[in-house]
Structure formats: C-alpha cells, structure tokens
Amino acid sequence: MDTTTPAIPAEIANHVLWHFGRGGYQPGSFTQKLLELIGAADLDNKAKLAQIFPEYVHCVLAMEYDPDGVQQLLAAAQPRCYRCKDTDAGPWVTRGGDILCEPCAAPQPLTDGGAQ
After folding, report:
1. Is 77 exposed, middle or buried (0-12, 13-18, 19+ CB in 10 A)?
2. Tell me: the pLDDT tens digits for 9-21?
3. pTM
4. Any idea where the domains of the chain sit in the sequence?
5. DSSP the chain
6. In this predicted model, what pLDDT tens digit does every residue of 21-70 receive, in sequence order?
7. CA angle, residues 93, 99, 103, in degrees to nearest 5
8. Pick from 17, 3, 56: which is nearest to 34 by CA?
9. Which candidate, 38, 34, 89, 86, places its Cα nearest to that of 64?
C-alpha cells in the first residue's frame, strides 16, 4: 500500500467539505456518488479506491479519522498563490497545476540587474 500523502487540490477539498456538510461547494453527480461510495467502503475497499482516486480517499479518511482533518481541508480549500503564498489576491490564474494570483501571473518586466 502506498503511504505517501497526496497533495490536496482546492477543488477536491471543497467537494469533500461539502459532502460532510462543512462548507465547500457541491461537486457534480459522479463525484457525489464517488464520495458516497468511499464513505460506505470498508478500509480494504478504500485502499482499492485509493489506487484510482488517491486525493478523494485521502480527504475522506482525513475527515473520518483525523481530528485536524477539517482544518486541513479548510486550509487546502482556499486558493493560495504558489509564488507569493497570498490567499486574498485573486482573481486566480491556473498554469498547469499551479495557481497564481493575478499580480503574480502578470508578465514580469525584464530587468538588466540594475546595470545602466
């Protein structure tokens, strides 16, 4: 069994928080059924589901067994700029898997290092 902790994307954290009635926002019908399935599964079947949906299973397990799980998911649910680490500087821009605030996503001027 893989023991690495997957990174928790904000979207998945919000889906799981909604599923447990702790905030977040409603996912689509497939994801709602997936969360119901993960919640109903025993630990052996959760491990099997984790092979395909590691982030969702990790978040459900955190909500079910970790006393700090709600706080972890609430923190992950807020978009955070990977460059400046700000949570309030939206709107947000996604580049690949990275979330940037609009100021950090703006083209940066080329500098010559202060030479004149």
Report:
1. buried
2. 889 999 999 999 9
3. 0.69
4. 10-77, 79-116
5. ---PPPP--HHHHHHHHHHTTSS-----HHHHHHHHHHHHS-HHHHHHHHTT-HHHHHHHHHHHH-TTHHHHHHHHHS---TTT--SSSPSEEEETTEEEEHHHHSPPPP--TT--
6. 999 999 999 999 999 999 999 999 999 999 999 999 999 999 999 999 99
7. 55
8. 56
9. 38
